[in-house]
Amino acid sequence: MKKQKVTAFDIVLLVFMVGVVVVTLYPFLNILAISLNDATDTTRGGLHIYPREFTWANYSQIFGGNDRLLSAFGMSVLRTVVGTITGILASTMLAYTLSRRDFVFNNLFSFILVITMFISGGLIPEFLLIRELGLMNNFLVYILPLLLNAFNVIVIRSFMDNIPMALTESAKIDGANDFTIFWKIVIPLSLPVIATVSLFLAVGQWNNWFDTYLYARGNANLSTLQFELMKILDNTQLSSGDITSGNAEYVAGQTNPQSIQMAITIIATVPILMVYPFLQRYFVTGLTLGAVKS
């Protein structure tokens, strides 16, 4: 078999792609290096992709100084799993209904759905509504307000619009009802877009801390990892302000605000990075297959 000749273009392309990889990975590697570096040494600057003086002290400071982090981590996992499952169920069912050409109110409900992407009731009406519904300091406050997202429904509907009508019609002829068609035909064929939207939902649930701050501060059992990390971050920023104004000094061997911030970033990012590779192969497929009408 004849070897393919390496051209100048191939070399230039290889160098360019290596540069892209370096530029893409450098910020994350830099954050990781700072989070694993000695706090006193970090103040000297000049850290790049590996720690000069390796230490776990920054992570020990975070986990050792907050007994709630473990339970908060469990709550974050719980809300992410439950919120993603319920969100994908609600979104797929609504998307399937709107994708049916024989649905009489298709245009009306589609219009109402799209309007929500441009017009919002605002934070105060939302707060008052959740309070009146009795969701304050309730686990359901993490689930119900985020149950449906117009963008996710539209993405799923666009994908389902490309499923041949002949499949559902033949299933009806064989005696299948809408529920059977939805679970046995539409859902299996829509796995790429379901995986894509599941990633959107999981990332949103995992990263959300503001709803805990607004609606669940009164119940310590509902505190999430992101909320606890945000409180630690606020404390480090206050410490940073004291240091800048000369009211405090760094002590050798202790952590500093920058080290804590970088360690928090790693803690918040790694769980999602562990999930993403399993869904990545569906990601592009799920977004592009429903984008073009056949």
From TrEMBL:
Domain of life: Bacteria
Nucleotide-binding is among the record's keywords: no
Subcellular location: Cell membrane
Database matches in SUPFAM superfamilies: MetI-like
Membrane-spanning ranges: 7-29, 77-96, 108-127, 139-160, 181-203, 260-279
Membrane topology: Multi-pass membrane protein
Family annotation (Gene3D superfamilies): MetI-like
GO biological process assignments: transmembrane transport
GO cellular component terms listed in the entry, alphabetical order: plasma membrane
InterPro entries per the UniProt record, alphabetical: MetI-like (IPR000515), MetI-like_sf (IPR035906)
PROSITE patterns: ABC_TM1
Domain ABC transmembrane type-1, first and last residues per copy: 73-279
Membrane keyword on record: yes
Family: Belongs to the binding-protein-dependent transport system permease family.
Name of protein: Carbohydrate ABC transporter membrane protein 2 (CUT1 family)
Species, as recorded: Streptohalobacillus salinus
Lineage summary: Bacteria, Bacillati, Bacillota, Bacilli, Bacillales
